[in-house]
Amino acid sequence: MQFHGDFEGRDVFYSHAAIGFYNADSSNVLEGYLGLGHGHGDVYIDARPASAYGPYTLGFAQFNYGWHLNRHWDIGLAMKVGRISAIFRGHDGEDPNDDKEIFGPRKSNLLEPQFFVRVGSKKIKFQLQLGYTYLSDWPRTGAIRYIPISLSTGLNFTL
């Protein structure tokens, strides 16, 4: 099982859960996951003073392949593919109480290649991961805030 959470404040968060397999006995890292994520994000429109917010969901599959360099070090590559769906509502800057739909619904395919390094013991390892997120059908204007390059850390537990 895989769990992830990213909380930036009351109105900006993301979490997901996934189930999958992990081959612990091989000389290679071999993992696969299917998951569902949910978040709440905010938006800033560059062309005019407006803000928007709203929920989004992400269904995904992830495959990891790598190498056990020794008992303590793993390196590898991962690929996450999925479909994101969002509905953002907001105001046009004139009346903050006048919420109307201005970005929704939006749907996009997600492609996220990643590189990871893990260090630790056989049962618990610290992970550092560098990734790039590509959204195929998202607006190219910079209107919806997302950061395509990510660096994350985590802990991996093996039962």
Describe this structure in words.
By secondary structure, this protein is an all-beta fold. The chain has a single domain, classed as Porin (Beta Barrel). It has no helices and 11 strands. Strands 1, 2, 3, 4, 5, 6, 7, 8, 9, 10 and 11 form an 11-stranded antiparallel beta sheet that branches. β4 and β5 (73-86) form a beta hairpin. The protein is elongated, with a radius of gyration of 18 Å.
List keywords for this structure.
159 residues, mainly beta, Porin
| Apparent shape | elongated
CATH class, named Mainly Beta
Number of distinct beta strands: 11
Strand content: over 45%
User: What share of the residues lie within helices?
Assistant: under 10%
* CATH topology label: Porin
Distance between the termini: 10 Å
Rg computed from alpha carbons, rounded to a whole number of angstroms: 18 Å
Strand-pairing-aware structural class: mainly beta
Number of helices: 0
Which residues sit in consecutive blocks of at least 5 with pLDDT less than 50? none
- Integer count of domains: 1
Question: What do the pLDDT scores average to?
Answer: 80
Topology pattern, helix = H, strand = E: EEEEEEEEEEE
Give me a quick take on this structure.
The chain has about 160 residues and is mainly beta. The chain is built from no helices and eleven strands. Strands 1, 2, 3, 4, 5, 6, 7, 8, 9, 10 and 11 form an eleven-stranded antiparallel β-sheet that branches.
